[in-house]
Every structure is written in C-alpha cells, then in structure tokens.
C-alpha cells in the first residue's frame, strides 16, 4: 500500500509541475525541505538555498572564488588599502548602499544592519550558526559563554524561567550596553564592526549569505515579534524554540527573489522575482523548489523537462548519461566531508535505542562513550566499496573530518580500514563484551531520499549483524529532513550520518565544529563527549583537545596552526571520535537549456539570479 501511495504522489507532483519549456520558470527537484527560514537559526543547506536567494549580506564571494569578494548591501569590500580595515585588523567599516528596497517596500538603512547582527547574537539558538560571529567578534563561542564571562556566574545561576534573577538584571543590561552594542555601531552611512582581536576569516564569515550575515528590516521584525531592540528586554527573545520564531516560515529580505509560498504539506517552496531588486529584475520570474524523495520520479521529471535540475544519485548516474537534453557537470570541487558520528550520551527520550538497557532489546545511552564501541564501527564500513560502487568514484578518502584543500590536511595520517575480524575483537573489548554476550539493539536513521546515507546505514547493519548473528540487531529508519535534523540536535540518534559543508574556508570551521566541546556537533554528541575533549590529557602534553583547538584558531602563524591541526586530527583518529567516510566530488545534473550556473563550494544551492534558460 505504501508503494502504491508513493507512486500516486509522484504522479500528482508531475501533473502539478509539467511546464514543458518556459524560460521564465525554473523547477529544482531535491530530496530535502527547509528546516526553518529564521536566518539566525537555519543551519542546513536546504534552508540555506532559500535564504541565499531571498536575503543578502553586506558582501559576497566573487563568482567561484573563495578569496575574492564583491559588494552587495555594502558599497565596498573593506581592505587595508581602501582604509576600511583599521586598527591592525580589529575594525571593519562597511559603507551601506542607499536606495535598496526590502520585499515589503521598506528602504534599507544602516540601522537595519546593526539590528540584524545584534538580534542574531542575542537570539543565539542552541546548535545554530551564531557561534561564528560570537567567536569572530568577541572571542567567545556563545551568548552563554559571554554571560558567564561578564557576570561571573554560569547561565543556570543567572536566569530562572527565562528571566534574570533580580540581583543580576542590571549586570545583564550593562553587558549589552558595554560589550555587544559598542561592537556593532552605526556611524553616518557606515556600519562599523569592532573585533576583540584581529580575526583573519572575518570577511569569509560576512560573505556567506546563508543566514547569519543576512539583513532584516528592523521595523518589520519588531512588529512581527522579534527582539524589540531594547537593552532591558533582549533575554525574552533568546534561544526560543524553532517553530515559535516569527521568522520560522516567513522571509522578508532584499534579495532577487521573494518568498511566495512554503507548502510544508506538499513539500514545495515558491519564489518569485523581486521587480524592485537593486541589481535589476531576475530573468527567471518564478522558482519552484520541490522535495521529491524517489529517484525514479526525479529522473523522469528531468528527462521530460518538468525539472530543470535534480538531486542526483551517483549510483544511478549512468541512467541519465548520453541524453542530449541533459547536461552532467562533474568533478566539481567540494569543501565538505561525510561522517558517521556518535552520540556518547544518547537522550533517554530516544526511540532509537530500544529499551535503553543491557537486556538484549536495546542499547545503553552511553554505549558509544566506550572507545572500542566506536572502534568497532570504524571496521564495519567498506570505504573503498562506498566510493567505487555507490559514489561511482566521485569521492576520496580522508583521515579525519577535515577536507583536502585546507590548512592542516595531512594525507600521511592513517586511514580507517574495513576488517570484520578486528570489528569483532573491538566488540569483545567494549563493555566487557556485553554486546556479544547479552545482545544489542538500536536504530540507524537517515534522511529520506538520501540513498548514500541509506547505503552506509545498510552496510553497518549488514556487517554488525554478520559478526554477531542473533545478538546484534540494527534497524534502519528513514526520516524527513526536518525530523532528522531535530533528532540529531536532541541527541536522539546513536549514530547520525551527516555531511558538513564549510561555512567559511578555514580549518577551524571543521576542527572546532567536530571536535570541540562547544562545537556545533557537541550537543548531539552528548555530555560524555564534552567531558572527554575538555579534560587535560597526558598524550596532549597536559592540555585538553579543546585547548589545542583554541590555540590553533587563535594563532596567526600558518605553520604553527598546521602543526596543531595535525596533532588534533591524530588524537581524533586514535580515539575514533567520529568516522570520516569520504570527501565528496560534486556532480550536477541539469537540462541543457540551463545557462549561467557556476560552482562555489560555499554556496548552499543555486544562485537563481545568475541562472537563465535558453534553447
């Protein structure tokens, strides 16, 4: 019955979007749907593609370059030469463009820019992207860390039920006035950022229009129920739940496209060209983003011309080769890694660990806090087969969660190996061999339509059950993209499989994200992980992994940074912190009539302003 329903849904999708050739309408068929449209909470590429085309940042990457920038809402890219980078790299001045219109008709002002960045910093949702700006501007990793640093007490002691205790309220207001507000100021037609210390990747963070550097309309935002801009109310708006954000399903930017519809039932986003866009009205008048989980449906849509590009399944790429109406662009450089991760402290609310006990019907929440449990998983992945058979060669091995092409990548570091004998030996050592004696049952989840993650999950299931027949039972669950993200963020998945696309092209964006106790993945890896990487270790010269990461990110000496990153990766490899499977090589499938596409590994999806259709 489920199979029949799937076909019916697919036929309905085809009927709805059958446009034949229309140069004004563009249809993209992917496998994921947005998680949220709040620019300061969205932290996935599907949400990012919508935000990228609806909002704008002050500057942007120039074409395919990762080192050159061009102005957007600012009229100049700050540099030492033009006098807009000052104080030895601690002050950045952005002259704000005049006459830019928001989609609601309001005119962009420097005050909008200041408000947008301050709102993001004060909101700082858990697991969101704002850590980048907190670190770049203030040298801390979060709002909570700044509160503790300024007040001298942990957040749990400062706030009760979301409100500061009376004895700390004045201090909290003072923190905004003395620390946050002076760091981002309007001076005439300029917005000035004052950093706590020089930070080299600052412009790369500012250039990434995926959310954190985008600009909101201040007046409209306040009316919608976002932060009211006052210094004595901001805590009421911090870290609110995703669905409760006024921006969850609404987007009002200055970008080339305005959001017309986000139909979450039918998994469809519709964008329309913004006629008053300051760079000129886009050639594509309507963009439709569809979530189509089934490869066969996406393939048929591309072949018929009902989709202009689709998410490809590399395993089946040959099915569309040789079609003169389809263009395949391959060997696209990527700045990402695909990793099998672990929750070292799975949430007790998780439905993916069975009973949650050593009774043969579950997995204890702390199972993967044991090094040999993680080591066993490293041996049950046939890495070469994944790259050869599933990726069709469009991937390369990497020793750690750092892609080739960034400072500190070392191809001489050891690679994990596929070896079922060693996998069983590791399980015999993990938790006194209880997995083999008593039994183990858990679930590996993947996001629906992602055949690559499905294949990796199936491989792990097959080999774990093979080496412990009747004792280890692994189930596999397909979740829609928002549900998958939520389950990861809540540390409910014992073994999430995920891909990290760089926020900015610096090793800190990977090393900090994967291996630091305050990194983006730390909450989903759990308290046992945080304790492990924050504890001083003899093999690290008496320092913790956290301390080494901080040393590497704060050093201005590339040679010193490279050495530290190699040391960090070696420790991560030796302790099986996560299992890097491959670094992807990009492949794109589009109709031959699509023109204007260009690669940039920082971009979360299509740049629809540059695309057009021509037969």
UniProtKB/TrEMBL annotation:
Domain (Solute-binding protein family): residue spans on this chain: 69-520
This protein's GO CC annotations: ATP-binding cassette (ABC) transporter complex; periplasmic space
Signal peptide as annotated in the record: 1-20
GO biological process, alphabetically ordered: peptide transport
SUPFAM superfamilies in alphabetical order: Periplasmic binding protein-like II
Keyword Isomerase: no
Matches recorded under InterPro entries: Peptide/Ni-bd (IPR030678), SBP_5 (IPR039424), SBP_5_dom (IPR000914)
Alphabetized UniProt keyword annotations: Signal
Database matches in Pfam families: SBP_bac_5
GO MF assignments: peptide transmembrane transporter activity
Gene3D superfamilies named among the record's database cross-references: Dipeptide-binding Protein, Domain 1 (3.90.76.10), Dipeptide-binding Protein, Domain 3 (3.10.105.10), Periplasmic binding protein-like II (3.40.190.10)
CDD domains from the UniProt entry: PBP2_NikA_DppA_OppA_like_7
Descriptive protein name: Peptide ABC transporter substrate-binding protein
Organism per entry: Fervidobacterium pennivorans
């Amino acid at each position: 019955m489920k199979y029949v329903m799937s076909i019916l849904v697919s036929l309905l999708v085809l009927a709805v979007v059958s446009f034949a050739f229309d140069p004004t309408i563009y249809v993209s068929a992917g496998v994921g749907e947005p998680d949220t449209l709040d620019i300061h909470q969205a932290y996935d590429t599907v949400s990012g593609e919508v935000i990228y085309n609806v909002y704008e940042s002050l500057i942007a990457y120039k074409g395919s370059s990762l080192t050159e920038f061009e102005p957007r809402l600012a009229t100049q890219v700050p540099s030492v030469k033009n006098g807009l980078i000052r104080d030895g790299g601690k002050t950045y001045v952005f002259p704000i463009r005049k006459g830019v219109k928001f989609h609601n008709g309001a005119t962009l002002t420097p005050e909008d820019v200041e408000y947008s960045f301050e709102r993001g910093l004060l909101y700082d949702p858990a697991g969101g992207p704002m850590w980048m700006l907190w670190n770049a501007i203030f040298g801390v990793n979060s709002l909570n860390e700044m509160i503790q640093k300024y007040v001298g007490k942990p957040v749990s002691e400062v706030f009760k039920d979301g409100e500061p205790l009376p004895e700390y309220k004045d201090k909290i207001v003072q923190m905004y006035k003395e620390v946050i507000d002076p760091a981002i100021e309007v001076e005439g037609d300029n917005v000035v950022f004052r950093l706590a210390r020089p930070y080299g990747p600052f412009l790369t963070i500012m250039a990434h229009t995926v959310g954190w550097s985008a600009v909101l309309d201040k007046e409209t935002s306040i009316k919608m129920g976002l932060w009211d801009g006052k210094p004595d109310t901001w805590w009421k708006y911090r870290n609110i739940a995703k669905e409760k954000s006024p921006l969850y399903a609404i987007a009002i930017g200055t970008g080339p496209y305005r959001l017309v519809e986000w139909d979450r039932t039918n998994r469809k986003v519709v964008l329309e060209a913004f006629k008053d866009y300051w760079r000129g009205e886009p050639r594509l008048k309507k963009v439709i983003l569809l979530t189509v989980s089934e490869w066969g449906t996406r393939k048929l849509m591309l072949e018929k011309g009902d989709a202009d590009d689709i998410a490809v399944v590399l395993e089946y790429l040959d099915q569309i080769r040789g079609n003169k109406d389809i263009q395949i662009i391959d060997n696209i450089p990527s700045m990402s890694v695909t990793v099998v991760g672990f929750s070292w402290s799975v949430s007790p609310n998780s439905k993916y660990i069975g009973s949650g006990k050593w009774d043969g019907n579950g997995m204890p929440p702390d199972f993967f806090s044991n090094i040999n449990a993680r080591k066993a998983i490293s041996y049950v992945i046939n890495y070469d087969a994944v790259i050869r058979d599933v990726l069709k060669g469009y991937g390369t091995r990497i020793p750690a969660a750092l892609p080739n092409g960034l400072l500190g990548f070392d191809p001489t570091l050891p690679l994990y190996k596929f070896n079922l004998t060693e996998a069983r030996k590791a399980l015999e050592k993990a938790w006194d061999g209880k997995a083999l004696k008593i039994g183990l049952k858990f679930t590996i989840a993947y996001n629906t339509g992602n055949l690559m993650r499905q294949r990796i999950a199936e491989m792990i299931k097959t080999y774990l059950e093979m080496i412990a027949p009747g004792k280890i039972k692994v189930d596999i669950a397909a979740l829609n993209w928002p549900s998958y993200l939520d389950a990861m963020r809540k540390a409910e998945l014992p073994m999430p499989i995920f891909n990290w696309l760089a926020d900015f092209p610096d090793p800190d964006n990977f090393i900090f994200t994967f291996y630091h106790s305050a990194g983006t993945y730390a909450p989903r890896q759990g308290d046992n992980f945080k304790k492990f990487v924050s504890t001083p270790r003899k093999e690290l010269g008496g320092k913790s992994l956290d301390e080494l990461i901080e040393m590497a990110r704060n050093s201005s000496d590339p040679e010193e940074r490279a050495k530290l990153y190699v040391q960090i990766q070696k420790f991560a490899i030796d302790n099986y912190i996560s299992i890097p499977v491959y670094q992807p090589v990009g492949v794109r499938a589009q109709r031959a009539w699509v023109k204007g596409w260009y690669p940039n590994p920082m971009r979360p999806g299509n740049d629809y302003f540059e695309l057009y259709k021509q037969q």
